[in-house]
Design a protein that fits this description.
Blueprint (H helix, E strand, L loop, with lengths): L1 H9 L9 H14 L17 H20 L27 H10 L6 H10 L3 H5 L6 E2 L4 E4 L2 E5 L2 E5 L8 E4 L2 H21 L20 H15 L7 H13 L4 H8 L4 H7 L4 H17 L3
Antiparallel strand pairs: 1-2, 2-5, 3-4
Helix pairs in contact: 1-2, 4-8, 5-7, 5-9, 10-11
Amino acid sequence: MVEAYVLPRIGGLRLAALQPNHVRSLYADLLESGSLGRGRARTGRGDPLSARTLSLVHRILHRALEDAVSDGLLPRNPAAAVKRPATPKSAAGKVWSADQARRFLTAVAGDRLDALWRLELSTGLRRAEAAGLRWSDIDLDAGALSVRVQRTAEGYTVVEREPKTGAGRRLVPLDADVVAALRSWRKRQVEERLAYGPAYEDTGLVFTREDGAGYHPQRLSVMFRRLCEKAGVEAIRFHDLRHTAATLALEAGIHPKVVQERLGHASVQITLDTYSHVQPTIARDAAERIGNYLRGDG
């Protein structure tokens, strides 16, 4: 965070010269054009940085400068005089209804990556997690996968790294339909490998092109959007498949703690805050269940 967003803009200032107006200017610049990808902020203007990421930058900078005050390097913390950027209460974007999700899956049945779309709507994996998934991470007999690697894009360069948090490294149980789809896909992938011959690239990745090479994460988003049009459903972002999976799970009565663990959130509070729009539905369902139980109806 510091290398990508802070140092390129105020890294040349001496610590004693840093003033609140420098911090305010930093935040304004980041809000306007800060999102360039880690390590690339020196290369030019980018897209607006999200309020959530900017809030994290503020926390890091504030804590670092507070340590400087404690060490006697500064008389006061310049970031303390700057209002902390507001963080959105919910990061959830557009989501499909259960009917829209079913229509999409029906329309893409037979698509080469049918297993990917089913996996996404069932588990809510991040795009980087799905792109980096390897067969060695999946136990089809046990019906579970392990999230160990993220395959993501910095600029347009694909890099692989471990999940950012311990919660991100997780075991995700799979339902029978997803397991069946993955078995079918693995069989097709083997057939493609034999057909391609010696030039086939053995990456070990689950979701690959016909030559065995992994997909660029952005390519998956392009393919998904085209399938939305084909299915005649509202076009949402690839990341919104994750939001849809979480929303449908909560609406289906899955305990928020289970949903948190499947998504890889650091705490259940993050899950509840992100999907607060689902809580009224859950509350109404809970009221009906309590009433039924008291009546002896189940």
